Amino acid sequence: MSSAAYSAAMTTEMDLSAREHLLRCDRQEDLCFAIWCPSRGRDRKTALVNRLILPGNGERNIHGNASLEPIFFQRALAEATSEEAGLALMHSHPHGIKWQGMSFDDIDTEQGLAPAVFGATRMPFVGLTLAGDGSWSARFWERTGPRTHQRRDCATVRIVGVRLVVTYMDRLARPPESSEEQVRTVSAWGEQAHTDLVRLRVAIVGAGSVGGMIAEALARIGLEDITLVDFDHVERHNLDRLVYATRKDIGRLKVDVEAEHLSARATAKSFRPDPVAAAVYEEDGFRAALDSDVIFSCVDRPWGRYVLNLIAYAHLIPVVDGGIGVRTNRFGKLVAADWKAQTATIGRRCLQCHRQYDPGLVQAEREGFLDDPTYIEGLHKDHPLRVRENVFAFSMSCASMQMLQMLALVLAPLNLSNPGAQLYHFVGSHMEPPDFEPCHPECQFPDVSALGDACGIRVTGIRPDPTVFSKKQ
Questions:
Q1: What whole-number distance in Å separates Cα of residue 284 and Cα of residue 178?
Q2: What is the C-alpha separation between 451 and 4, in angstroms, rounded?
Q3: Secondary structure of the chain: what % helix, strand, coil (to 5)?
Q4: Closest by alpha carbon to 321, among 300, 343, 306, 304?
Q5: pLDDT level of residue 368 (50, 70, 90 thresholds)
Q6: Sequence-separated (6 or more) residues with CB below 8 Å from residue 337
Q7: CB of 114 closer than 8 Å to CB of 138
């Protein structure tokens, strides 16, 4: 695993708590320990920091720099071991800005503690440094031999909440050079904001009409890393909605066609589309999604949304979700066309509480009933699974709303990062007031925040075979 395949993340609340302790009024350095849980993607390992272990009296010394006493380390290690979690050491460089390097003392301390931490937890020791401007840097100490641990720098540290803030290590996540094609885009929000925006690793789950338009928008803005997750093939009846496909693409995997289309239109000098032919609830699709910093949910079935909802909270990856519902009357006349967009992330309501999927139908999809025509025909005509009909014009509007949700989350113009859940009614031509309600008090998803692979919820499985039902008929 390369250094670029490591990252760290924490919630905004955790970040604020760490700042309160580490950035002292007297501008001296300080330290503390923290508990972390792993989030293992296909190519990236992330340390999810979910609890601080603050020093007690006599457990550390402040003398311009900061040093810890053995009793503090022993207490922290015991807590990590009892929770079957990893251990991290946090310390501050109050006079530094942006990504911080390590002094010889920093290296000696962390490298010296790494063998004992691995021996007790069977996980790498993680170090994090907080600069005076609030930027984080991080590294893993991976075991490479008996009592030998090598430093693996993280490419990113992300702070996840109502807003997404990412600190990049320039050596591993190089600032892209703006191209002439991006001049108008960069002028809209500035060079620094653009540099941070286009270094995001973004996954788009669902390569249908909405997902295709979002992918093209991201490629034209200048993003370099876009992962496309979808198992379906291009069919003739898709061609009125897929912006990236033509008749010659019928029968090919959507993600392969889309990747070729984006490569010809991307404005980044180094563009890396990653087509993943899997469902997000399959292990390959799930792990690929965990490599991203932001996910666009462009799926319309309950199992996929359930998986993405868990990722948003347990793995600290914001999910920008959207959906379209179209209804006609018994005469075939359009009576309703509604589309909505919202972002599921720490501090905002989850997709289940938004009623974007019915949890009772997740198991029905696992067992293949949603691929059974007789099951679908037995549902009420206004059931969400029967009002998924869509046209290109409606997809354009939904895709636009999801893009604006993501841009607000990352750019936060005038510190406004949360537009709330948005619902537009085409029939009647009006937008509902934005919804800022939190999750239901009994919702399980906020309780698994930053637990990653240790959340205890198994969401992946085997994709149902739709031919089983066609053979029965």
A1: 33
A2: 22
A3: 35, 25, 40
A4: 343
A5: confident
A6: 324, 325, 326, 327, 394, 425, 426, 427
A7: no
Cα separation of 91 and 297, whole Å?
Answer: 36
Calpha distance 97→339 (Å, rounded): 42
The CATH architecture of the domain made up of 180-472 is 3-Layer(aba) Sandwich (3.40)
Residues 6 or more apart in contact with residue 387 via CB below 8 angstroms: 325, 326, 327, 381
Considering Cα of 431, then 437, then 438, then 441, what sign does the dihedral take?
A: negative
Whether residue 406 contacts residue 294, with contact meaning beta carbons closer than 8 Å, is answered with yes
With 70 as the cut, is the pLDDT of residue 418 above it? yes
Task: Dump pLDDT digits (tens) for 325-346.
Answer: 888 888 989 999 999 999 999 9
Q: Residue 375 pLDDT > 60, yes or no?
A: no
- Residue ranges of the chain that CATH labels 3.40.50.720: 180-472
pLDDT at res. 3: 44
Judge contact between 186 and 192, C-beta under 8 A.
no
Report the interhelical angle of 254-263 vs 209-221 (nearest 10°): 30
What is the Cα–Cα distance from 5 to 47, expressed in whole angstroms?
Answer: 11
Q: Which residues contact 195 (CB under 8 A, 6 or more apart)?
A: 175, 176
CATH 3.40.140.10 domain residues, the chain: 3-168
Residue pair 241/391 in contact by the 8 Å Cβ criterion: yes
Nearest to 160 by CA among 297, 7, 23: 7
Axis crossing angle, helix 302-314 with helix 359-366, rounded to the nearest 10: 120
Q: What is the CA radius of gyration of the chain?
A: 24
Place of tokens 């696992």: 366
DSSP-based three-state secondary structure for 351: coil
Average pLDDT over residues 350-369: 91
Looking at CATH, the fold of the domain delimited by 3-168 is given as Cytidine Deaminase; domain 2 (3.40.140)
Average the pLDDT over 66-80 and give the result.
96
> With contact defined as beta carbons under 8 Å apart, do 218 and 241 qualify?
no
Provide φ and ψ at 181, rounded to 5°. Answer: -70, -15
Interatomic CA distance for residues 361 and 366, integer angstroms: 9
Alpha helical stretches, state H, 175-319:
183-189, 191-198, 209-221, 254-263, 283-289, 302-314
| Cα–Cα dist 12/433, whole Å | 26
Percent of the chain's residues with pLDDT above 70: 94
Question: Which residues partner with 157 through β-bridges?
Answer: 8, 167
**Strand 225-229 to strand 201-205: parallel, antiparallel, or no bridges (unpaired)?**
parallel
